């Protein structure tokens, strides 16, 4: 696996590509306490500045954790495509109507009573650092490459890994 650390525009592009293609992430909050509090979240949007947006309930444990400590970690994983992304950053909560309308979709009705639900909030995740692993192939192709490498002793490009500085 080759290492490719990315910066600025290229890092932002890679972050957006992986976060949107994987979609679901584990949002970890209350990082200073063990065990950390982690909950699955669906990525609603990655904006042009690299901020990652989610919808959440005002009364949720993770919103309460964010109020105490704005540091958080995201863990994205798509094993079928051998894509992984870990992002550390800070989070804030907003009830800005324009943002909620931009992020809210019909599928969110499963969690909220529509766009006017008083419990509806948006979480803005601002990345500080990230680490990614991307095989550029699906799991089957990656396994074949690993098998080939183990039999022949030849190095095979299994993809790339690196840090993202946005």
Short description:
Helices cover 27% and strands 39% of the residues. The protein is of the alpha+beta class.
Q: How would you describe this structure to a colleague?
A:
- It comes from Leeuwenhoekiella polynyae.
- With 166 residues, the protein is of the alpha+beta class.
- It has a single domain (2-142), classed as Electron Transport, Fmn-binding Protein, Chain A (Pnp Oxidase, Chain A).
- The protein is built from four helices and ten strands.
- The protein has helices at 8-22, 61-68, 97-103, 139-152; strands spanning 2-3, 6-7, 24-29, 37-42, 45-46, 52-57, 71-78, 83-94, 120-134, 160-165.
- Strands 1, 2, 3, 4, 5, 6, 7, 8, 9 and 10 form a ten-stranded mixed sheet that branches.
Regarding quaternary structure, what we see is single chain
Describe the biggest sheet?
A: 10 strands, mixed
Shape: globular
CATH structural architecture: Roll
CATH topology: Pnp Oxidase, Chain A
Domains (count): 1
Helix content: 25-40%
State Rg.
18 Å
- What's the helix-strand series? EEHEEEEHEEHEHE
Low-confidence stretches: 137-152
The CATH homologous superfamily = Electron Transport, Fmn-binding Protein, Chain A
Class inferred from helices and paired strands: alpha+beta
Helix count equals 4
How many extended strands?
10
Mean pLDDT: 85
Task: Give the C-level CATH assignment.
Answer: Mainly Beta
Estimate the strand proportion. 35-45%
Termini gap = 22 Å
Protein name: General stress protein 26
InterPro entries: Split_barrel_FMN-bd, Stress-Dev_Protein, YdaG_split_barrel_FMN-bd
Organism: Leeuwenhoekiella polynyae
Domain General stress protein FMN-binding split barrel: 10-157
């Amino acid at each position: 696996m080759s290492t490719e650390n990315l910066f600025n525009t290229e890092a932002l592009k890679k972050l957006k590509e992986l976060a949107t293609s994987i979609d679901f992430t584990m949002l970890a909050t209350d990082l200073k306490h063990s065990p950390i509090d982690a909950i699955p979240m669906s990525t609603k949007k990655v904006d042009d500045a690299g901020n990652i947006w989610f919808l959440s309930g005002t009364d949720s444990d993770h919103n309460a954790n964010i109020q105490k400590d704005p540091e958080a970690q995201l863990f994205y994983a798509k094993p079928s495509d051998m894509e992984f992304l870990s992002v550390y950053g800070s989070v804030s909560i907003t009830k800005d109507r324009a943002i909620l309308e931009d992020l809210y979709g019909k599928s969110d009705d499963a969690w909220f009573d529509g766009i006017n639900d008083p419990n509806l909030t948006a979480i803005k995740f601002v990345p500080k650092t990230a680490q990614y692993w991307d095989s550029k192939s699906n799991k089957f192709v990656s396994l074949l490459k690993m098998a080939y490498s183990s039999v022949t002793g030849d190095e095979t490009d299994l993809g790339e890994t690196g840090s993202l500085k946005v």
